[in-house]
Amino acid sequence: MKRLNILLGVIAMLLVVFSFTSPLSTNKYDYLITISTDFGDMKLRLFDDTPIHKANFIKLAEEGKYNGSTFHRVIKDFMIQGGGIKLENRQAFDTLSFEDRTLPNEIMEKHKHIYGALAAARVENPGKRSDLSQFYIVQNHKGTHFLDNRYTVFGQVLVGFSILDSIVNQKLNGSSPIKPISMRVTAEKVKRTDMVKFYGEIY
Q1: CB–CB of 135/115 below 8 Å?
Q2: pLDDT for residue 108
Q3: How far apart are CA 156 and CA 136, in angstroms?
């Protein structure tokens, strides 16, 4: 039964991925991602040429899987990491995993770890496969380019950079915020023309 559920989930994701891999010139809509925190909102776009990660992130957001999860790892001048989702029949949020809860890497030379880059977290593995849900956002204003071509960068913050800086300035115990920083993530379908109107030439 577990394998059947996994297979059905993969099929569903492939159907969503197919919608993103249709010719971009005929795709009039995109998704605007909002990550809401007590410090304010960050708006992000997801890249069309990382369709598996894009479809997966939108699916988790639409299902509310990220809501209530936290940015559990925060390192100033580096990044903020979060997005561990609750597993079935478990109350605690999941940690990074391997096995069947990963995505194939979509590492692309052109997607760099610049300020505000959204990338998939992972444990070390030969295929550089990404964790199913956990992600990080680059907070270093100069970027973290030593991670380029090692992790899948699949999105970018459009507005809300000050939220990143506010989060890394909270009191920490090591790299863990003393006061939990929870998030709510939504995915809104919008016209690409509106994305360009409000956020510039992002495509």
Answers
A1: no
A2: 97
A3: 11
According to the model, what pLDDT value does residue 141 have? 98
pLDDT of amino acid 4: 45
Domains of the chain: 2-199 (2.40.100.10)
- Given a contact cutoff of 8 angstroms between Cβ atoms, the answer to whether 168 and 151 are in contact is no
Of 145, 152, 138, 146, nearest in space to 108 by CA: 152
* Biggest CA pair distance of the chain: 49
118 beta partners: 137, 155
pLDDT at 142: 98
pLDDT < 70 regions, the chain: 1-26, 86-100
Question: Are 133 and 60 contacting, i.e. CB atoms less than 8 angstroms apart?
Answer: yes
* pLDDT value of position 96: 54
Beta bridge partners of 149: none
pLDDT at position 85 = 81
Check if the beta carbon of residue 121 is closer than 8 Å to that of residue 81.
Answer: yes
For 127, 142, 144, 171, 184, the CA distances from 150, given in Å and listed in that order, are: 10, 18, 11, 30, 28
- What predicted TM-score, i.e. pTM, was given to this entire model? 0.84
* 16 burial level (CB within 10 Å; 0-12, 13-18, 19+): middle
CA 181 to each of CA 35, 112, 118, 189: distance values in angstroms, whole numbers, following the listed order: 12, 26, 18, 26
